[in-house]
Structure formats: C-alpha cells, structure tokens
Specification:
Helix content: 40-55%
CATH architecture: 3-Layer(aba) Sandwich
C-alpha cells in the first residue's frame, strides 16, 4: 500500500510575474506541482501538454483575456477544475465564467491562507460541484 500523498498539478495563468512567483512559493511547499503561464495562449498550450488537476486563471490579461482562455481550454478539457483570480469582478465576466464551469472565485488582493483554503475546498468537492 502506498502512503505517499497524492501530488496534484496546478497551472497558474496570470500576466503578473509576481503572482506566478507567489503561486510557486506558496503552493510548492503544500505538495502541489505548480506550472506557470504568462498569458492565455501559453496557458491553453500548457493545459493540453500537462493535463493539470486545477487551473488558477486571471480574468484580466492582455492579448487573450481569461474568459477567452477558458473558452479555448473548455473546447478540449471539460473537466479541469478552475479557480478564477481577479481584481475586477464585474457581473458580466462572472456570468461568462460561470457558464464555463468554474469551481471558485478569488478576488485580488487575497491572503495566502485564502488561496490555500480555496484550493483545498475545490479538491475536496467532486468535479462539477460548486461549493457556495
């Protein structure tokens, strides 16, 4: 019997290098493998190549925003869990994201403990079930 903890892979997609660095530094010690993409196109590519268990996705990014990124990801991956990270939670964006099967939302700025708590909750819930 294997008593090793299950290592989960998280893909962080954000145009802010500081946020990506924070994700690596914060989530790596929590036994997550963290992959980083600096934009939507790179995020779509890494999702296809790496098949992560969870995506942390910024809504506001240049060139390809978070909603368009998620639309492209959902064309080939309906089941990956997604946490939306945004400082701009306008109702249209939230509605669009909800239509794309988002597990949770987290507003910037956030406390490190909030991020860890949200990710833990998402992994505890079955895929497709949003905990309110």
């Amino acid at each position: 019997m294997n008593d090793q903890p299950l290592l989960r892979k998280i893909l962080a997609i954000d145009d802010e290098p500081g946020i990506l660095e924070l994700m690596k530094n914060l989530l790596g010690p929590e036994s997550y493998t963290v992959l980083c993409a600096t934009g939507g196109a790179e995020g779509v590519r890494l999702n296809t190549l790496e098949n992560p268990d969870l995506i942390i996705l910024d809504l506001r990014m240049p060139v390809m925003g978070g909603i368009e990124t998620l639309r492209r990801i959902r064309k080939t991956d309906r089941d990956v869990r997604v946490v939306i990270l945004t400082g701009y939670g306008d109702s249209d964006s939230i509605r669009d994201a909800a239509d794309l099967n988002v597990s949770e939302y987290l507003s910037k700025p956030f406390e490190n403990s909030q991020l860890i708590h949200v990710i833990s909750n998402v992994f505890e819930n079955p895929i497709g079930e949003i905990k309110c």
